[in-house]
Write a structure and sequence with these properties.
By secondary structure, the chain is an alpha+beta fold. Helix content is about 50%, strand content about 10%. Strand 4 and strand 5 form a beta hairpin.
């Protein structure tokens, strides 16, 4: 099954429409998948425990490969746009979006298959693989914050993990780990971070929640980073306006405050729902449809500011700088197991993001 899926991903890339498949960066990604395919095919079928461990080690090298496939595709989209005199029309954009959605959805399945095999071994668990991924992207120090978050949370139950799947996943534990990481990233990038208030509405729930913990962490991290970024930038804009007013009329004005972000976790009979509410200024309705498209940000030729060069702008899985892929990939991860992500915006006030995860 694995060679088939790897080969299919290479074919998906080589058949992307409207010239996207011929860009240098997309060709490089397709060659990466072909290289993965050759590595897997060259390894003989595991017939005993020793060969199984060797095969699993090969799969680990694939998972920990820091070649950023989303970033390469983003560059491919940018180079395609830069190479055209006329803008890409709406029909072609829709066809490219559909093709990229199919590719990334299938990629989620491929990664899940590989990671589940790795984590099904007796000598590996989700946290150990997560630690190695952080080591590969140079973010190992973030585990210190996660350890502090876990120390504040009394968890007496066993994890009950089956490979990448946790039979009784604790959404509060994963949310607190993610909040600790995003808080550090935000402070490192901007020097400040809004308070993140976590409201736990799960203690009285008797429903078990079977899920993939690192999928949950990825989705919450991307949504939370969006809220932190909007809140901080909205605050900085307000600070600059206050300074200008003070300089112009010499009067005293109240300095803007950094409003907190509220993160609410509930567990029902059908869904675990996570709501992230910020007061970062919101967005106009005209942009709501575009935030779910891969081409939305990557087709803009904008220079990154200094804070965007920090870890806060890195994709959670690849550890690379990437713009515009967070929300569409988050929705793909949510929908993969039958969930959903919705965004409600009040322009001039803030955004409420809802993450629905089915109780499997």
């Amino acid at each position: 099954e694995l060679p088939i899926r790897i080969a299919q991903r290479a074919i998906d890339l080589l058949t992307l429409p409207h010239g996207l498949n011929s860009t240098r960066d997309v060709q490089a990604v397709a060659n990466t998948y072909i290289r993965y395919l050759k590595v897997v095919l060259d390894f003989p079928m595991p017939m005993n425990a020793e060969s199984e461990r060797e095969f699993t080690q090969i799969l680990k090298t694939i998972v920990l490969d820091r070649h950023s496939i989303p970033m390469a595709i983003a560059r491919g989209l940018q180079s395609l746009k830069d190479g055209r005199r006329a803008p890409i029309d709406g029909q072609r954009l829709r066809e490219m979006e559909e093709a990229l959605n199919r590719f990334f959805t299938a990629r989620v399945g491929l990664r899940f298959l590989v990671e589940h095999h790795i984590l099904s071994g007796n000598d590996e668990n989700s946290d150990a693989l997560y630690k190695k991924q952080l080591e590969a992207e140079g973010g190992l120090e973030l585990l210190h914050n996660e350890s502090e978050a876990e120390a504040c949370y009394d968890d007496e139950s066993e994890d009950e993990c089956c490979g990448a799947i946790q039979k009784n996943c604790d959404p509060m534990k994963e949310v607190k780990r993610t909040v600790a990481r995003v808080t550090k990233l935000c402070r490192d990038s901007y020097g400040i971070c809004p308070d993140i208030e976590i409201v736990d509405c799960t203690p009285d729930s008797q429903y078990r929640f079977t899920y993939v913990p690192h999928h949950l962490r990825y989705m919450v991290a991307e949504l939370l980073k969006n809220s932190c970024r909007a809140t901080v930038r909205n605050y900085l804009v307000g600070s600059n306006i206050q300074k200008e007013d003070h300089c112009n009329d010499g009067g005293l004005h109240d300095a803007p405050t950094l409003p907190p972000i509220r993160l609410i976790v509930t567990k029902g009979a059908e869904d675990v729902t996570i709501k992230i509410a910020d007061r970062g200024g919101g967005m106009p309705r005209s942009l709501m449809r575009r935030i779910w498209t891969f081409a939305h940000s990557t087709l803009k030729n904008e220079k990154r500011s200094e804070e965007e060069k920090g870890d806060f702008e890195k994709d959670e899985f690849t550890g690379r700088h990437i713009r515009g892929f967070g929300l569409p990939v988050t929705r793909i991860y949510a929908r993969y197991f039958g969930g959903e992500v919705t965004i409600k915006s009040m322009e001039g006030y803030g955004v409420d993001a809802y993450l629905y995860l089915p109780v499997l």
